Amino acid sequence: MQRSRVREKMRRQEPVLCTAIHFPNASLAEMIGRFGFDCLWVCTEHVATDMSLLEHIVRAGRLTGMDVMVRVVRGNHDDLIRPLEMGAKGLMIPRLRTPEEVERIVYDTRFYPLGQRGIDGANPDADMGFVPIAEYTRFANDHTFIVVQVEDAEAVDCVEEIAAVRGIDVIFIGPADLSQSYGIPGELKHPKIIKAIERTVVACEKNGIYCGTPGLDVEYTKMLMDMGVKFLTAPGDFGLLYRGFRQVVETYSQLGFTFDPPES
Predict the structure, then answer these.
(1) Enclosing domain of residue 170
(2) CATH no. for residue 66?
(3) Tally of domains within the chain
(4) Helix H or strand E encompassing 210
(5) Of 125, 174, 178, 185, which one is least surrounded by beta carbons within 10 A?
(6) Do 171 and 163 form a contact (C-beta atoms < 8 A)?
């Protein structure tokens, strides 16, 4: 069974850096994995990624030794465990507001003694059934990380209780939705957001888990790390492609080429 690069870095108290794939493509995931990133963030909440394609992306991560973290749709038990059985090492669960909701997530995604995740044992995360169930469940608990997203003001208000739930590894501040919850949509570096991150860092450190949030740029990432944030995201494929093609347009416009983009 494959060990989790993220969990092993957490045990050494090292910072973790993820990148994101917005355009789901297994070959792109494999290329990203060749760069040696700790983790690839795949979203099924906002991106239409079907299960068969997700399975190929997870396999590309396994091939290159890169953890894959899947942000799931908050649905039933199957929506939570299928990515894990494919071999994803991390789950991100959005819009959690109370410790009771987080406790339920742990129950569904962790094996005994932390929870009661359903056992199959014949999938990639269990080496296709080549290991005993007791060994598989123990290893899975040790090499799976659970990320809960705090994206609402009411969740920040009880973040200390959320951080105390045994079985989670990261509380991830989602600044876009949180800015909307605070009535300042789009102000991702607003003092209210910074204050929420600071409060979350304290709660996480008290309980031996990581605080995470997007590293919006290099300077901001450095500030976050100085604050104690240890689970960070770097630019993903969307941002890199946007800036890259924007640079192409600007450069070639200077050579006399014209561009005719569609109206928004």
Answers:
(1) 5-253
(2) 3.20.20.60
(3) 1
(4) strand 210-214
(5) 185
(6) yes
